Amino acid sequence: MTILWLGEAESTDIDAVGGKGASLGELTDAGLPVPPGFVVTADTYRRFLQTAGIETELFEEILATDADDSVAIAEAARAARELIRETSVPETVRDDIIAAYRELGSQTADRGEPFVAVRSSATAEDLPDASFAGQHETFLNVTEADLIDRIRECWASLFAERAVHYRTNQGFDHETVDIAVVVQQMVDAEKSGVLFTRHPSSGDRQMIAESAWGLGEAVVSGAVSPDHYVISPETATVVESTITDKKQQMIKDPETGETTLEAVSKDKRTTRVLSDAEIETLVDLGTTVETHYGEPQDVEWAMVNGEIFMLQSRPITTISDTEDNSAGSSDESAPADDEGVLVQGVSASPGRGSGEVRIVRKLDHLDQVTEGDIIVSKMTMPDMVPAMKRASAIVTDEGGMTSHASIVSREMGVPAVVGTRDATQVLSDGQLVTVDGDMGVIRAGGPTKPDEPAIQPDPVESVRPQTPVKPMTATEVKVNLSIPEAAERAAATGADGVGLLRIEHMVISLGKTPEQYIADHGKEAYIDELVDGIRTVAEAFYPRPVRARTLDAPTDEFRELEGGSDEPHEHNPMLGYRGVRRSLDKPEPFRCELAAFSRLFDIGYDNVELMLPLVNDAEDVERARTHMEAVGIDPEKARWGVMIETPASALLIEEIAEAGIDFVSFGTNDLTQYTLAVDRNNEYVVDRFDELHPGVLSLIESTIERCRALGVDTSICGQAASKSAMVQFLVEEGVSSISANIDAVRDVQHEVKRVEQKLLLDSVR
Ligand code: PEP
Ligand code: MG
């Protein structure tokens, strides 16, 4: 059978219809109103290969590549896709699909030629992430003329370069992965919205609906603020409602199927979207969906011609009543005074951890750090990361909020206090202490409550959004990342992407300076290391954007590494040879970094963006752009931008923008140190380091304003993005996105939502 109707597919039919097809089939079976459609089965794909006689060529010739040869893999993937695209679909298969499409048209639309969505639905259940199997391929607004081509394109997506790379590297057999294709009617919604089958924040037995005119994208993108209804599920009546002024709606162009934003007619703008009868229909839908899944759901729905469709449903995870370990939480069990305080410092990573002190003076002491110990050292280095993962807390003598120890411990969710000046002197090996990362103190003894856990809860779980749904915000909230190992944890925050991926950690953990590494192992090996590190993050977030930055490490960090004796001795490394200055001066390692980006773009990571650190003026940017072009990056196609970290770059934004950048990102760690002349790593002036200083804010404010006029996106990725006062300031100024530390993402999402709502209210008051 070439196709299976969604009503015929069951959840157990994954082999035939793939994961997506099976779940849509299950919902259709359960009587839920999913838009009608059919699945071109995996068997049909197989039949296509067999009838054309291309299996041997595809699997035994083209795809038989060496797992270590990334260039050969890229070529194989390209050839495999081309072979699929050039092979014609058997006549009988073609006829069956077109017949099903016309049947769908006769069922659903008066014109008989409906717009459909065509989506790949892979059957490889054993793959940890179905995205590797080309699961992401989706074509919207397809009609009969290009239906067969689109389906074949979905088959070809099984050989997207990232998918082939992944399967080759992991030893998965390309032949065992099949692909089905879902063809589903698109809903031309007159009204749409979301329904929470329980109150999203209190968990009360109330349903909450939000609705607006037209397609749901208008609400999701923040272009329209929807009507809000609190509904009693028992009586299916509205208990409370807020009717907003819905100035715009998203509609579909009847000719092309493209969506466009248009003004809502005056009489409809402030009219309530949902009638009482429609509320009843929604309540029925909500009840059926919740019963089907056995837990509260957040349902996306659409209505057309009085008919309701369910587009998507996700579980609502009710608010946990366990103790909140997020940044800034107050904890009543902590002693309020100085009782038992042995050492104080900067609270670098939140949470509390108790255990035995392990003073680490040399790297070879690291194997003495056992699970649950407290690492106490002068400072930390990338080689210490495995031991830091075992530790229940980290304490250092040196460093501030943005030092290596702080960044790594925050990303891993390990409590940390840094810049204590003398912890390695005051504390002794084996001593039992409790590190309070919120208060920045280390106390004698173990946990204050006998049943309090000595070690923090699971770091991935602790950052998942705790409210039922992630707050929907017009300003994007992203996350900062340095260690690829923390990518899963970062992605679990629900952030809209990575606003800053620092590659310094990847480079420094090679144990050699870039120059030394290239001298010993060659350029290709260096490029491979970077591709691997960035790819881990790009994959965890795909298709959410990942903004990776070229290297920016000061020479004192390089000096510790092999090859470090060649580094210049600088009076103040923070003002010296780092960022794009070093890159332009030493183009060989820089070109390797750029080549890594170029390769990732070629592999298909269209979510990777490139960012240049510490630029001062247009000349810096133009010179870097020339290097980008030299390695094959097309600056017109790639998304790239610069950090605004020096007052000069903020003042000269117009000239910089002329180089063709898509975005800027405020690096407030550096922008603050350079504006205020306060060394960010110097614990003696830590109290003068103020990112909210009017001088710093004034530079940010005027840059945002001018970037808006220039059509350049603005963002922040410095430590200050995690502070609510900064978030408030930036949202009010109209920043495009905010990138915070992993542990702060959740709070920032809520803060952004709060400020946006306030702005909206102020505008109508
Ligand atoms: C900054 O300067 O704010 C920044 C994000 O970059 P880094 O901390 O890596 O210098
Ligand atoms: Mg910086």
What's this, in brief?
This protein has 765 residues and is α/β, with parallel strands linked by helices.
Secondary-structure blueprint:
Layout: E1 3-5, H1 14-29, E2 37-40, H2 42-52, H3 55-62, H4 70-86, H5 91-108, E3 116-122, E4 138-142, H6 144-156, H7 161-170, E5 179-185, E6 191-196, E7 207-213, H8 217-220, E8 227-232, E9 237-242, E10 248-252, E11 259-263, H9 266-269, H10 276-293, E12 297-304, E13 307-315, E14 341-344, E15 346-349, E16 352-360, E17 374-377, H11 385-390, E18 393-396, H12 404-412, E19 416-418, H13 423-426, E20 432-436, E21 441-444, E22 476-481, H14 487-492, E23 498-501, H15 504-508, H16 514-521, H17 523-541, E24 546-549, H18 555-559, H19 579-585, H20 587-603, E25 608-612, H21 618-630, E26 640-644, H22 647-651, H23 653-657, E27 663-666, H24 668-676, H25 694-710, E28 713-716, H26 724-733, E29 737-740, H27 745-764
Parallel strand pairs: 16-17, 17-18, 18-19, 22-23, 22-29, 23-24, 24-25, 25-26, 26-27, 27-28, 28-29
Antiparallel strand pairs: 1-2, 2-5, 3-4, 3-5, 6-7, 6-12, 7-8, 8-9, 10-11, 12-13, 14-21, 15-19, 16-20, 20-21
Helix pairs in contact: 4-6, 4-7, 16-17, 17-20, 19-20, 26-27
This protein binds phosphoenolpyruvate (PEP) and magnesium ion.
Phosphoenolpyruvate (PEP) is lined by residues 402, 500, 502, 552, 645, 667-670, 717-718.
Fold and architecture overview:
This protein has 765 residues and is an alpha/beta fold. It is built from 27 helices and 29 strands. Strand 8 and strand 9 form a beta hairpin. The longest helix has 20 residues, at 745-764. The model is unreliable at 125-135, 317-336 and 450-456 (pLDDT under 50). Phosphoenolpyruvate is lined by residues 402, 500, 502, 552, 645, 667-670, 717-718. The site of phosphoenolpyruvate has 11 residues, from helix 24.
